[in-house]
């Protein structure tokens, strides 16, 4: 047990978890944005956008995240020379954020769609009958309620996203997974302790998220 | 009721014209973006015929892709089978009247849902290396399976528990009234029914397992992704190799999804399905897919497909949820 501070210090676990939070924050922001765009694409009465939206969601959901992150690095960066940052470290962090956002956007879209489905038929009819256009009713009636109805699934996406940031290690982004691998390599004698540090770290991050989600979904749910 | 046509009126002639025009314009814009991307790739000689040629040869398939697919499916089958057994035990324990069993299994389930699968794989590899006599070549496979089993065992246990929770109360009462004790009722009446009803959800959990097996990349389990990458280096066609890997993953997962949908349809016809508490499948390492429904907003609409518009197949039987 007295090894814990030393392990945390020596293998940059604090930094690793900091990076997990950083990736989570930015990816969550972009995923929410992209996911909203995707769900709008699927809701508008424009055939091609519906089809493309459904296709994108289906494809993203069935592709492993590892593949998406590797692709962003090997194809966008190495092969196509896309530079998102001044140096390779920043660049890879941003590529990881890009991949995480795109991947989770599909799940945000599904969550929002389940939110849309909680809205009673009459709401949209009422919006039309007071003369709102499609985009007005989307903006003032449908989406606000969809977000409130989708808090729980959105929270689940956020928790999954937090855990998925560990995958960024495959392109060398120094999240906890790399610290853990290094720690195991140099201190195999305290294997269980290392695992415990990482596991408890994730429980500590995701537990409040879950609690916050259930609190928010109770507070903001539209009473019907 | 489908979500899409709730949102707008049946279009009149003018609206139909506008829709058609925007449809065409939107299609053109999307096509233009795609064309630009492909054109760039082509210009960089990433997808020229020379790069594609190896895919049509036998070497790529015999030495890289087929072994990769085999390894991926092997890990998935091992994982899903063992995870199912563990899930059954964990679910029974969590519903048990014995407090110690209940707490232990609650702890197990909540803990392994919170820890990322990749972290468990890294740990499992080190553990297997240090403490077990597993031969070197088998270690990555065992580690991948352990990681997948712990996470998916926990998730599937919750699926089963939700299945039991959504059975009509009369089932339990009937069991009790013919003199069975609560444990017998669970074992002989509730869980078997829950399993049948949740079968589609359990099958579509396989998609999560298949996707997550790609995490084996990090601990050098020779699954599809690694073999595709090796093929890319061998033939100098990395972009093509990754495209192929993506297509293969999507096809395999799509097949599983279709299977799950078929099962669900059959169950629904035979009237044995509990109105699906959606479990769906989440982002790999998804946490609490089913909580969405336990606490989620009131009644989830049955049909989440945009009324026959566009294709929503292939996104899981647990549609709409995660």
From TrEMBL, chain A:
Belongs to the binding-protein-dependent transport system permease family. HisMQ subfamily. Keywords: Amino-acid transport, Cell membrane, Membrane, Transmembrane, Transmembrane helix, Transport. GO terms for molecular function: transmembrane transporter activity. It comes from the Bacteria. It is found in: Cell membrane. GO terms for biological process: amino acid transport. PROSITE patterns: ABC_TM1 (PS50928). It is a multi-pass membrane protein. Residues 17-213 form the ABC transmembrane type-1 domain. It comes from Ornithinimicrobium pratense. Its main location: membrane. GO terms for cellular component: ATP-binding cassette (ABC) transporter complex. It holds the Pfam family BPD_transp_1. The chain crosses the membrane at residues 20-44, 65-82, 157-178, 190-216. InterPro entries: AA_ABC_transptr_permease_3TM, ArtM/GltK/GlnP/TcyL/YhdX-like, MetI-like, MetI-like_sf. This is ABC transporter permease subunit.
Automatic annotation (TrEMBL), chain B:
It holds the Pfam family BPD_transp_1. GO terms for biological process: amino acid transport. It is a multi-pass membrane protein. It is found in: Cell membrane. The keyword Cell membrane applies. Residues 69-260 form the ABC transmembrane type-1 domain. InterPro entries: AA_ABC_transptr_permease_3TM (IPR010065), ArtM/GltK/GlnP/TcyL/YhdX-like (IPR043429), MetI-like (IPR000515), MetI-like_sf (IPR035906). One of its GO terms (cellular component) is ATP-binding cassette (ABC) transporter complex. Keywords: Cell membrane, Membrane, Transmembrane, Transmembrane helix, Transport. Gene3D superfamilies: MetI-like. GO terms for molecular function: transmembrane transporter activity. Coiled coil: none annotated. Residues 296-322 are annotated as: Disordered. SUPFAM superfamilies: MetI-like. Residues 307-322 have a biased composition (Gly residues). The chain crosses the membrane at residues 20-42, 62-90, 111-134, 140-160, 194-220, 240-260. PROSITE patterns: ABC_TM1. Belongs to the binding-protein-dependent transport system permease family. This is Amino acid ABC transporter permease. It comes from Ornithinimicrobium pratense.
